[in-house]
Design goal:
The protein is 71% helix and 5% strand. The chain is mainly alpha-helical and 142 residues long. α2 crosses α4.
Length: 142
């Protein structure tokens, strides 16, 4: 029972809960970024490069049941061809760069807010004021 209690204490710490929330939000954010890259950014880049679609850049390792010429990655996969999908890899790299940049901006903003909170001087409590007065009186007395 002690191990179960230790695990419960560990799992209920604020840091673990914060981490779990971060992972859940990150997973949802990944879907958004994937859609942004695949549905918005890559078509614009492809248009700028005369209709290039990176997701259909691949090398054929084995033909599978087809003739060895496939216009799309889906067509190659449908006949069982083994492929190296370097275009999909390029999309994944772009996803990573976007997620990394957004996380950088979020952390930078959080640090900026934290510095602003730290910069605000905190007024001394009544006890601190009283102790300061007593200290000053004792200094003046001697």
């Amino acid at each position: 029972m002690t191990m179960l209690k230790e695990f419960r204490d560990f799992a209920m710490r604020g840091n673990v809960i914060d981490l779990a929330v971060g992972i859940i939000i990150g997973a949802a954010f990944t879907g958004i970024v994937t859609s942004l890259v695949n549905d918005v950014i890559m078509p614009v880049i492809g248009y700028g490069l005369s209709g290039v679609d990176f997701s259909n850049y691949f090398l054929i390792l084995t033909n599978g049941k087809g003739d060895g010429h496939y216009d799309t990655l889906k067509a190659a996969k449908d006949v069982g061809a083994a492929t190296v999908n370097y275009g999909v890899f390029i999309n994944t790299i772009i996803n990573f760069l976007i997620v990394s940049f957004v996380i950088f901006l979020v952390v930078k903003q959080m640090n900026r807010f934290k510095k602003q909170d730290d910069a605000v001087p905190v007024a001394p409590s009544k006890s601190e004021e009283l102790l300061t007065e007593i200290r000053d009186l004792l200094k003046n007395k001697s």
